[in-house]
């Protein structure tokens, strides 16, 4: 199990990317072609980065696709690992 909490990718966008670009949430949302409320949910960690959102952000920032969705997957996996659950027995042991 990993020992640190990965940041939500929206937090990185909100705290690092938008200020560096001098953009407001509304400006960035308009540039991406998404609603301001939806982008706000992403930036505040209440919505995740989808494949389509990853493509939009990557294109806007001149990055190869996949970075933002990989960060989202790392965040989601870490969050899931923190929840109590009954382990699944490996198939070879179950037979």
Task: Walk me through this protein's architecture.
- By secondary structure, this protein is an all-alpha fold.
- It has six helices and no strands.
- It has one domain: 434 Repressor (Amino-terminal Domain), CATH 1.10.260.
- Helix 2 (25-32) packs across helix 3 (36-43).
- The longest helix is centred in the last third of the chain and has 15 residues, at 67-81.
Brief synopsis:
By secondary structure, the protein is mostly helical. The chain is 62% helix and 0% strand. It is built from 6 helices and no strands.
What would CATH call the class?
Answer: Mainly Alpha
Q: Which CATH architecture is right?
A: Orthogonal Bundle
Number of helices: 6
Please report the distance between the alpha carbons of the first and last residues: 27 Å
CATH superfamily: lambda repressor-like DNA-binding domains
Low-confidence stretches: none
Estimate percent helicity.
55-70%
**Rg:** 17 Å
* Percent of residues in β-strands: under 5%
The name of the CATH topology is 434 Repressor (Amino-terminal Domain)
Features:
95 residues, mainly alpha, 6 helices, 0% strand
Blueprint of the fold:
Elements: H1 9-21, H2 25-32, H3 36-43, H4 51-61, H5 67-81, H6 91-94
